[in-house]
């Protein structure tokens, strides 16, 4: 390649570089006169290459940038090296932007000192830096806001926990204050009923018992709902028998249905599971609520319980209890809020049906805890159908019922469970010596009567300290107690402290806590203190008899253990 071709190529490449260069490149004299500029000057400053040629660079700078430019040229001449400065350039439209000038002195220039200057736009860089700074500031603000929200959330959670604790303590105290007198009311009416002969007095006592049981049910419903809301509702999943539960529910409500002239029916479909895994007590509680409502709101016709199964998939089988009635029904508007607490279909002042409206709310919450669904269909003046749908599993045995329908209007007896059979008649408890500890005289008298009816020897104490003294005195005389019934909230020394003391002395006597505190935490507290078992007041005779019998069946073994501990 010839020297001319080489020079042409170099010149061509230089022009192409300048053409695609983003920065503004100019050549100028020592005085600042612009000799040539790159094409990029048009998009950057608004001048084309012809217009800018011959202009003085100082004309294109703000007044404040002229002195730094002069200093940059002088620095480049004196040092013989490149010089750098920042200048504010005025565009053709008189707008301004910040540029960085990198100035080089050309060697072997034809006409005096000449320079090549590269102007690099710094406004975009600053804009990006500003954006980054703004982003970092927003990030800092966001982090501070998150920390503030986290602090507020923790504070709110602490307040909720404190409120729940206060609510828990309030419910526990209210349970104690209400259940203690209810124990006396229900218990003594039961005792009194055994001694009266006149039918009129018998009816009066039954009225007291019926209203006492109703009040106790209201208290239980309120506490159960509160337990669920606090996450303290205890479920005991075990094998339960759907048909047996239905039979027991019907037996309970049959007298009221007969009194109102209603037919109480069952409809068992061709195949139902013999057993399902659920909580039988809670399931029975739900069905009791539904049948009770059906009987209450039905004045003529029937109440029917239907049990059927259906498959939702190849792996999931559902069991459904339908409680249907021919009662007053529920309007569409009231159906929307029928499961709300303290809500009834008829909320007028003159409504003829009493109740708190807690039963359906509690039933829905319990069914949800059981992993099922409670739904309702109703038509005003035609009746309602409440459906409880539960998972029945896929490996259950079946009872073939052939679609039979049972009319229980004339059915006088139903088969009793083994538990019911054990509870029949008088006491089944074995003879033994029991220490009864309670600070209320009326409760001591009532339970003493029940225990004496079980043919047990009863000694009483009014607080934990007195109980410990009597236990120590009995051990010294060789007359040991076989069982202790311990109230937990007493003056001087409560049941918790007394039980802990007995266990610290390796005393193995069974201690049954009988307390009006009925939350799960109360039960756990009793067991943690060393109690062998737990009963919530009020306690009916058959329940107390079964509990006492359970612990006294191992009486000889307990006596040997106690005598060994005493000899130590």
TrEMBL record:
Domain PAS intervals: 25-61
PROSITE patterns in the record: HIS_KIN (PS50109), PAS (PS50112), RESPONSE_REGULATORY (PS50110)
SUPFAM superfamilies: ATPase domain of HSP90 chaperone/DNA topoisomerase II/histidine kinase, CheY-like, Homodimeric domain of signal transducing histidine kinase, PYP-like sensor domain (PAS domain)
Residues the record lists as 4-aspartylphosphate modifications: 487
Keyword terms, alphabetized: Coiled coil, Kinase, Phosphoprotein, Transferase, Two-component regulatory system
EC number: 2.7.13.3
Catalyzed reactions per annotation: ATP + protein L-histidine = ADP + protein N-phospho-L-histidine
GO molecular function: protein histidine kinase activity
Gene name tied to this protein: luxQ_4
Domain named Response regulatory: residues: 433-552
Residue ranges of coiled coil: 136-166
InterPro entries: CheY-like_superfamily, HATPase_C_sf, HATPase_dom, His_kinase_dom, HisK_dim/P_dom, HisK_dim/P_sf, PAS, PAS-like_dom_sf
Positions of the Histidine kinase domain: 173-394
Alphabetized PANTHER family for the sequence: HYBRID SIGNAL TRANSDUCTION HISTIDINE KINASE J (PTHR45339)
Keyword Transferase: yes
Enzyme class: transferase
Record protein name field: histidine kinase
């Amino acid at each position: 390649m010839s020297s001319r071709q080489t020079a042409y190529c170099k010149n061509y490449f230089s022009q192409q570089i300048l053409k695609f260069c983003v920065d503004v490149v100019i050549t100028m004299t020592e005085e600042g006169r612009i000799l040539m500029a790159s094409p990029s000057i048009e998009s950057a400053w608004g001048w084309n290459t012809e217009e800018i040629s011959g202009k003085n660079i100082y004309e294109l700078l703000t007044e404040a940038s002229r002195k730094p430019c002069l200093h940059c040229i002088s620095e480049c001449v004196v040092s013989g090296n490149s010089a750098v400065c920042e200048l504010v350039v005025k565009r053709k439209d008189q707008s301004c932007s910040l540029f960085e000038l990198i100035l080089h002195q050309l060697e072997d220039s034809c006409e005096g000192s000449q320079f090549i200057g590269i102007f690099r736009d710094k406004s975009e860089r600053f804009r990006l830096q500003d954006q980054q700074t703004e982003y970092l500031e927003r990030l800092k603000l966001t982090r501070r806001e998150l920390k503030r929200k986290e602090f507020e959330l923790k504070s709110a959670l602490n307040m909720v926990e404190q409120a729940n604790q206060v609510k828990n303590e309030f419910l526990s105290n209210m349970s104690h204050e209400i259940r203690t007198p209810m124990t006396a009311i229900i218990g003594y009416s039961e005792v009194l009923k055994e001694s009266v002969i006149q039918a009129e007095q018998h009816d009066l006592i039954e009225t007291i018992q019926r209203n006492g049981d109703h009040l106790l049910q209201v208290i239980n419903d309120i506490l159960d709902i509160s337990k669920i809301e606090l996450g303290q509702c205890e479920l005991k999943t075990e094998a339960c028998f759907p048909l047996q539960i239905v039979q027991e529910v019907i037996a309970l409500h049959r007298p009221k249905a007969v009194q109102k002239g209603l037919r109480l029916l069952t409809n068992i479909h061709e195949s139902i599971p013999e057993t399902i895994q659920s909580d039988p007590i809670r399931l029975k509680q739900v069905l009791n609520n539904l049948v009770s409502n059906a009987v209450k709101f039905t004045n003529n016709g029937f109440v029917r319980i239907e049990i059927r199964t259906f498959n939702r998939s190849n792996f999931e089988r559902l069991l459904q209890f339908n409680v249907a009635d021919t009662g007053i029904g529920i309007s569409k508007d009231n159906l929307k809020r029928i499961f709300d607490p303290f809500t009834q279909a008829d909320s007028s002042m003159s409504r003829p049906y009493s109740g708190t409206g807690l039963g359906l709310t509690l039933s829905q919450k319990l069914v949800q805890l059981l992993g099922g669904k409670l739904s309702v269909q109703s038509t005003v003046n035609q009746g309602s159908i409440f459906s409880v749908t539960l998972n029945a599993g896929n490996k259950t045995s079946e009872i073939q019922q052939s679609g039979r329908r049972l009319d229980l209007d004339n059915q006088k007896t139903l088969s009793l469970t083994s538990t019911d059979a054990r509870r029949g008649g008088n006491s089944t408890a074995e003879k033994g010596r029991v220490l009864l500890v309670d600070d209320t005289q009326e409760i001591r008298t009532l339970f003493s009567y029940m225990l004496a009816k079980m043919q047990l020897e009863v000694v009483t104490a009014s607080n934990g300290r007195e109980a410990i003294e009597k236990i120590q005195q009995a051990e010294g005389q060789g007359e040991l107690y076989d069982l202790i019934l311990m109230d937990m909230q007493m003056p001087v020394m409560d049941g918790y402290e007394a039980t802990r003391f007995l266990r610290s002395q390796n005393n193995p006597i069974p201690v049954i806590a009988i307390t009006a505190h009925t939350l799960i935490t109360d039960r756990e507290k009793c067991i943690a203190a060393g109690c062998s078992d737990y009963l919530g007041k009020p306690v009916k005779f058959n329940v107390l008899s079964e509990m006492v019998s359970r612990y006294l069946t191992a009486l000889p073994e307990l006596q040997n253990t106690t005598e060994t501990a005493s000899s130590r």
